[in-house]
Amino acid sequence: MKTREHNSTLGTLYVVATPIGNLEDITLRALRVFKEVSLILCEDTRHSRVLLSHHGISTKTESYHARSNDAKMKGIAHRLEQGEDVALISDAGTPLVSDPGSPLLSYLKKEFGDDLTIVAIPGPSALTAALSIVPVPSGRFSFIGFVPHKKGRQTAIKAMREAEDSTVCYESSHRIVKLLAELTEWYPEAHVSIARELTKQFEEVLSGSPAELAALLAAKPEKQKGEFVVIVSKK
Ligand code: SAM
């Protein structure tokens, strides 16, 4: 960590949650921060332009994503050092929750230590949206982010069976059918809820055993589309 002499001039980094589908799901504070900062770091600037334009925000944007390198982080650190306030957003929901941001925050913490103020502007996350409408037994859960695609996938699913608490995970439309087939094989007695397309037109929660849900999605392929939060609980 570097020692800084004039830390009072450091800008603030705001980590701002954005909608997971419905453009109205943005806080008043988030909109104010977007207007006040010098720069909004977006996972994908074109994607976020839709949200920002919808709310009349014309603040400069730049990309910061999972493949951003040290030079990019150095540039962001330089802006903060110049006293500029910066906001970080991802394509949807809360940054750093299965989304880019963690390496940047670690880098900036290393650079500035506690001199840098990082402020959370809370709001939507698919995780909390799902948990707010799908009760889990005793209110306890483990969140594992995305189920590993290949290596570790079987271990992750078997761990759900061993776990005392419910397991919450994200899954893509490419793998939701596969996940249900794997649960049918490795954890057939599970109680599974799928929160699909939250806050969007075809929002729904489907619940049942893995085999029941696999049969439902096979019969209605339109339900295989979209975005999913999967909650796996003991019966
Ligand atoms: N940071 C985001 C958050 O706080 O929710 C999550 C980003 S992660 C890259 C994207 C995954 O979140 C999707 O593949 C899906 O599993 C889940 N997700 C995002 N939006 C969703 C929605 N509207 N309904 C259900 N799941 C959603």
Largest sheet, spatial ordering of strands: 3-2-4-1-5
What is the residue-averaged pLDDT?
96
CATH superfamily of the largest domain: Tetrapyrrole methylase, N-terminal domain
CATH fold name of the largest domain: Cobalt-precorrin-4 Transmethylase, domain 1
Structural class: alpha/beta
In CATH, what is the class of the largest domain? Alpha Beta
How far do the termini sit from each other? 49 Å
The tally of strands reads 10
Please give the largest β-sheet: 5 strands, parallel
If you compute it from the alpha carbons, what radius of gyration comes out, rounded to the nearest whole angstrom?
A: 20 Å
Order of helices and strands: EHEHEHEHEHEHEHEEHE
What general form does the structure show?
elongated
Instruction: Tell me what portion of residues adopts beta-strand conformation.
Output: 15-25%
User: Which cofactors or ions or other ligands sit in this model?
Assistant: S-adenosylmethionine
- In DSSP terms, counting alpha (H) and pi (I) runs of 4 or more, how many helices? 8
**Weakly predicted, low-confidence segments:** 1-6
> Any idea how many domains?
2
Q: Provide the helix percentage.
A: 25-40%
CATH-level-2 architecture of the largest domain:
3-Layer(aba) Sandwich
